[in-house]
Protein: PadR family transcriptional regulator
Amino acid sequence: MAVGELSAVAVLVLGLLHEQPMHPYQMHQNLVERGDARLVRISLGAVYHGVERLERDGLVGVVGTDRTGNRPERTTYRITETGQAAFARRLTSFLGDDHPTYPLFSVGLAEATDLPRDVVTAQLERRRAREAGRLADLESAYERIRAQGLPRRYVLDVEHDLHLMRAELAWLDGALAEIRDGSFLWGEPIPAAFVEAYRAARRHAPQAEADDLTAAL
Structure:
C-alpha cells in the first residue's frame, strides 16, 4: 500500500490500534471522545470502511470476534508490523512534508472587494463570533485535560489550533476595525499608478519573474 494512500482517518485508526487492539465501534467512540472530529470528518461508517481497507492491505489483522447479549458480533483488530511501519512513515510525512490546503475563506477574501462593504463586514463579524465561541470551547477543554494531568506532548495539535485561532481572531479584529473606520478604501478602482507599474514589470522583467508576479496577484 502506498504511503500516500493512507487517509487521515486511517492514521487516526492506526494510532488507536498502536495503543491496543479494539473493534471499530470502540475506535469511533474513542475518536469522538478525544475530540478528533475537530481534525477530520469522522463517522462510524468511515471508521468501518477504513478498517476494512486496512485489513485488506495487511495493515491490521483480526484478533477475534465476540458477541455481548443481543448486540451484533464485534470483530477486534490489532495493528500488524506492516501497519506499524506504514503508520510511522505516513505520520512522519504529516509532520514534515508539505500538504497544501486551499481554504475557502482565503478565496472569499481574495474576491471580497466584489461585494458591498456592509456585506463583507457582516460576514466577517459572523465569522468572528463563531470562531470566538470555538476558541472558548477549545481553551476550556484544553485547560480541563491539562488540569487532569495529561502531558503536553499529547495535545500539541490542540496548542497549534489554539495559536492559529487566536491569530485569526486578532486579524479579524484588525481588519474589521479598518473596514469600519474607512482605512480600507472600498469600491474604488485599482490605482492607475499600480496598473502602470504592473505593466512595466511585465514588459521588463524576465518571464519567470513576470509569471511569479502574476501568480502573486
Remarks:
- Residues 104-186 form one domain.
- The two ends are 40 Å apart (CA to CA).
